[in-house]
Write a structure and sequence with these properties.
single chain, mainly alpha, two-stranded antiparallel ribbon, two-stranded antiparallel sheet, elongated
Protein backbone atom coordinates (compact mmCIF):
# COMPACT_ATOMS: atom_id res chain seq x y z
CA UNK A 1 0.00 0.00 0.00
CA UNK A 2 1.40 3.39 -1.01
CA UNK A 3 0.82 6.21 1.41
CA UNK A 4 0.53 9.78 0.17
CA UNK A 5 0.77 12.99 2.10
CA UNK A 6 -0.08 16.61 1.34
CA UNK A 7 2.83 18.60 2.75
CA UNK A 8 1.48 22.09 2.05
CA UNK A 9 -2.11 22.81 2.90
CA UNK A 10 -3.97 23.76 -0.25
CA UNK A 11 -1.24 22.39 -2.52
CA UNK A 12 -2.57 19.68 -4.78
CA UNK A 13 0.88 18.11 -5.26
CA UNK A 14 1.09 14.81 -3.40
CA UNK A 15 4.35 13.11 -2.60
CA UNK A 16 4.45 9.34 -2.68
CA UNK A 17 5.96 7.72 0.39
CA UNK A 18 8.02 4.77 -0.70
CA UNK A 19 7.09 1.48 0.94
CA UNK A 20 9.67 -1.23 0.25
CA UNK A 21 9.42 -5.01 0.37
CA UNK A 22 11.94 -7.66 -0.66
CA UNK A 23 10.63 -7.89 -4.23
CA UNK A 24 10.75 -4.13 -4.84
CA UNK A 25 14.24 -3.95 -3.34
CA UNK A 26 15.44 -6.74 -5.62
CA UNK A 27 13.97 -5.04 -8.70
CA UNK A 28 15.55 -1.73 -7.70
CA UNK A 29 18.96 -3.35 -7.19
CA UNK A 30 18.79 -5.23 -10.50
CA UNK A 31 18.01 -1.97 -12.32
CA UNK A 32 20.85 -0.17 -10.54
CA UNK A 33 23.33 -2.94 -11.36
CA UNK A 34 22.35 -2.64 -15.01
CA UNK A 35 23.09 1.09 -14.91
CA UNK A 36 26.40 0.56 -13.11
CA UNK A 37 27.44 -2.04 -15.70
CA UNK A 38 26.60 0.33 -18.56
CA UNK A 39 28.83 3.03 -17.06
CA UNK A 40 26.23 5.26 -15.43
CA UNK A 41 27.95 5.30 -12.04
CA UNK A 42 31.04 7.44 -12.29
CA UNK A 43 31.53 8.07 -8.57
CA UNK A 44 29.54 6.80 -5.60
CA UNK A 45 26.14 7.45 -7.20
CA UNK A 46 24.44 6.97 -10.51
CA UNK A 47 24.71 9.88 -12.91
CA UNK A 48 21.64 11.75 -14.22
CA UNK A 49 21.11 9.35 -17.11
CA UNK A 50 21.37 6.36 -14.77
CA UNK A 51 18.76 7.80 -12.42
CA UNK A 52 16.45 8.64 -15.33
CA UNK A 53 16.67 5.05 -16.57
CA UNK A 54 16.14 3.53 -13.12
CA UNK A 55 13.15 5.77 -12.40
CA UNK A 56 11.45 4.98 -15.72
CA UNK A 57 12.12 1.24 -15.62
CA UNK A 58 11.22 0.93 -11.93
CA UNK A 59 7.88 2.63 -12.56
CA UNK A 60 7.23 0.46 -15.62
CA UNK A 61 8.06 -2.79 -13.81
CA UNK A 62 6.37 -2.06 -10.48
CA UNK A 63 3.67 0.53 -11.20
CA UNK A 64 5.13 2.48 -8.26
CA UNK A 65 5.49 6.21 -8.82
CA UNK A 66 8.74 6.61 -6.89
CA UNK A 67 10.91 9.52 -7.96
CA UNK A 68 14.59 10.22 -7.58
CA UNK A 69 14.36 11.30 -3.90
CA UNK A 70 12.76 8.00 -2.85
CA UNK A 71 15.10 5.88 -4.98
CA UNK A 72 18.23 7.75 -3.95
CA UNK A 73 17.17 7.40 -0.31
CA UNK A 74 16.84 3.64 -0.87
CA UNK A 75 20.30 3.60 -2.49
CA UNK A 76 21.77 5.37 0.56
CA UNK A 77 19.99 3.05 3.00
CA UNK A 78 21.13 -0.06 1.15
CA UNK A 79 24.70 1.22 1.03
CA UNK A 80 24.74 1.72 4.81
CA UNK A 81 23.18 -1.70 5.43
CA UNK A 82 25.64 -3.40 3.08
CA UNK A 83 28.63 -1.71 4.70
CA UNK A 84 27.41 -2.88 8.13
CA UNK A 85 26.70 -6.41 6.80
CA UNK A 86 30.22 -6.64 5.39
CA UNK A 87 31.64 -5.49 8.70
CA UNK A 88 29.63 -8.17 10.52
CA UNK A 89 30.99 -10.89 8.24
CA UNK A 90 34.49 -9.51 7.60
CA UNK A 91 36.34 -12.31 9.39
CA UNK A 92 36.18 -15.94 8.28
CA UNK A 93 33.67 -17.42 10.67
CA UNK A 94 32.60 -20.83 9.41
CA UNK A 95 28.97 -19.75 9.70
CA UNK A 96 26.33 -20.27 7.05
CA UNK A 97 23.10 -18.85 5.72
CA UNK A 98 19.75 -20.03 7.07
CA UNK A 99 17.18 -19.71 4.24
CA UNK A 100 14.18 -20.22 6.52
CA UNK A 101 15.26 -17.49 8.95
CA UNK A 102 16.82 -15.38 6.17
CA UNK A 103 19.86 -14.61 8.24
CA UNK A 104 23.24 -15.88 9.38
CA UNK A 105 23.13 -19.34 10.90
CA UNK A 106 25.21 -18.88 14.04
CA UNK A 107 25.17 -19.67 17.73
CA UNK A 108 23.70 -17.36 20.35
CA UNK A 109 27.24 -16.88 21.68
CA UNK A 110 28.47 -15.69 18.28
CA UNK A 111 25.58 -13.23 18.01
CA UNK A 112 26.11 -11.96 21.56
CA UNK A 113 29.78 -11.31 20.83
CA UNK A 114 29.03 -9.55 17.55
CA UNK A 115 26.25 -7.42 19.04
CA UNK A 116 28.54 -6.43 21.90
CA UNK A 117 31.16 -5.46 19.30
CA UNK A 118 28.61 -3.31 17.45
CA UNK A 119 25.00 -2.94 18.67
CA UNK A 120 23.91 -2.09 15.10
CA UNK A 121 24.48 -5.76 14.17
CA UNK A 122 21.42 -6.73 16.24
CA UNK A 123 19.00 -6.11 13.37
CA UNK A 124 20.75 -8.71 11.23
CA UNK A 125 20.02 -11.41 13.79
CA UNK A 126 16.38 -11.41 12.66
CA UNK A 127 16.94 -10.67 8.97
CA UNK A 128 20.17 -10.52 7.07
CA UNK A 129 21.02 -9.67 3.49
CA UNK A 130 20.18 -12.65 1.31
CA UNK A 131 23.01 -13.96 -0.90
CA UNK A 132 21.38 -12.83 -4.18
CA UNK A 133 20.81 -9.31 -2.84
CA UNK A 134 24.31 -9.24 -1.37
CA UNK A 135 25.73 -10.01 -4.82
CA UNK A 136 23.72 -7.21 -6.40
CA UNK A 137 24.81 -4.78 -3.69
CA UNK A 138 28.43 -5.81 -4.24
CA UNK A 139 28.01 -4.81 -7.88
CA UNK A 140 26.34 -1.54 -6.89
CA UNK A 141 28.72 -0.46 -4.14
CA UNK A 142 31.86 -2.61 -4.41
CA UNK A 143 34.96 -0.50 -4.79
CA UNK A 144 33.22 2.71 -3.71
CA UNK A 145 32.13 1.97 -0.13
CA UNK A 146 34.63 2.63 2.64
CA UNK A 147 34.67 -0.07 5.27
CA UNK A 148 36.54 0.24 8.54
CA UNK A 149 39.48 -1.72 7.19
CA UNK A 150 39.71 0.61 4.16
CA UNK A 151 38.65 3.91 5.70
Amino acid sequence: MVKTRNFVEGDSTLTTKAVWDDELTLIFCELCVNEVSTGNRLTTYLNSKGWENVIALFQAKTQKNYGKPQLKNKWDTLKKEWRLWRELLKEPTGIGWCPSKKTVDATEEWWAEKIQENPDFKGFKKKGIEPRLNELMWQMFGGVVATRENA
